[in-house]
Write a structure and sequence with these properties.
single chain; 75% helix; mainly alpha; chaperone; Helix Hairpins
């Protein structure tokens, strides 16, 4: 079997000259490491003094290291070695030495109180026997161990226990308040962040809506301007066509006057002003007047120059005079 599979205490037992002495040495060392207000050097010197007759044959350092490590498996193994290899008297002797070491300074620590009871149980020693042995060695009864979970224990051993508990409770309450305040602060910061984000989104939405309205209004203005330009262009085209037609009529009239020696009478001239030939009916006169009045009314030329407005007014007056004359004579 490989040596690496053994625990440190098992290796000590294998190398020991007396396994019983080594096991007893560990049990006593376990008691010593729970002595209060004792230095490590004092523990080792006291252990060496008590175990001067032991035949283990190794240093105390490894034993003290195992005791400090609280290796319960090693403690249990040591108790089994003592119980199996020795008589009841040797077990009592080991417990006797443990009580001696635990009460050197007159006080039995709470840890050693429990350790003595635990060792007695491991060594198959009855509690009554432990109490009797303790009474014989110390002159004091072995009272039940105190319970550290009760406030009475700490009131006796630690007068500042309640004050410390109050301070700890106050500190915990303060920490809880601070944590709550930090949580509220984070919540407020998160809320403000969300509000700013929503406000920014609303502003962006408003800007987009405003841009959409402006674009729509601009498109409407452009459409209205195009329609106005088209209307004006159509009106100009009609006016130019009418001017060309009238010019053609004047040229024909001039040609007729130049080709026919007698001048036309007033009725013929009035019909010519309305764009009618001789022999036109009264209905033709009315229709021609309405058409000519719509085309040449001065109000249609309000946006033109004063000269054009004056020409239109004169032309409309000739049309009206011709119409009035024809309606009187027809």
């Amino acid at each position: 079997m490989s040596i690496a599979r053994f625990s440190p205490f098992e290796l000590l037992l294998l190398k020991s000259r007396s396994q019983v002495d080594t096991a007893t040495l560990l049990l006593l060392a376990w008691v010593l490491v729970h002595r209060q207000h004792v230095s490590e050097g004092q523990r080792r010197r006291r252990l060496a003094q008590v175990t001067a007759q032991f035949r283990h044959g190794h240093e105390l350092g490894p034993i003290m290291s195992i005791a400090h490590s609280q290796d319960l498996q090693a403690i249990q193994l040591a108790a089994e070695v003592v119980r199996k290899e020795c008589s009841n008297e040797r077990s009592l002797s080991a417990l006797y030495q443990a009580i001696t070491l635990a009460t050197d300074d007159g006080d039995l620590s709470l840890a050693n109180h429990y350790i003595l009871r635990f060792l007695a149980d491991l060594l198959n020693i009855a509690p009554s026997t432990l109490s009797t042995l303790f009474q014989e060695l110390t002159g004091k009864p072995l009272c039940p161990p105190e319970d550290p979970s009760r406030d009475a224990y700490w009131q006796q051993h630690d007068p500042e226990y309640h004050a410390r508990q109050a301070q700890e409770a106050q500190a915990a309450e303060q920490q809880a308040k601070e944590a709550h305040a930090r949580a509220e602060q984070r919540q407020r910061a998160q809320t403000e962040k969300q509000q700013k984000k929503q406000q920014k989104q609303q502003q962006e939405q408003q800007r987009q809506q405003e841009a959409t309205r402006n674009a729509k209004a601009r498109a409407q203005r452009e459409q209205a301007q195009r329609e106005h330009d088209q209307h004006e262009q159509a009106r100009r085209t009609r006016w130019q066509q009418e001017q060309a037609r009238q010019e053609e009529a004047r040229r024909r009239q001039q040609h007729q006057r130049s080709s026919s020696p007698p001048p036309a009478d007033r009725t013929t001239r009035a019909l010519a002003v309305l764009g009618l030939a001789p022999g036109a009916s009264r209905t033709d006169v009315r229709q021609a007047y309405r058409r000519m009045a719509q085309l040449h009314h001065p109000d249609r030329f309000y946006s033109e120059s004063d000269h054009l407005v004056a020409l239109a007014s004169a032309r409309f007056q000739r049309i009206k005079n011709a119409y009035d004359y024809l309606m009187q004579t027809y």
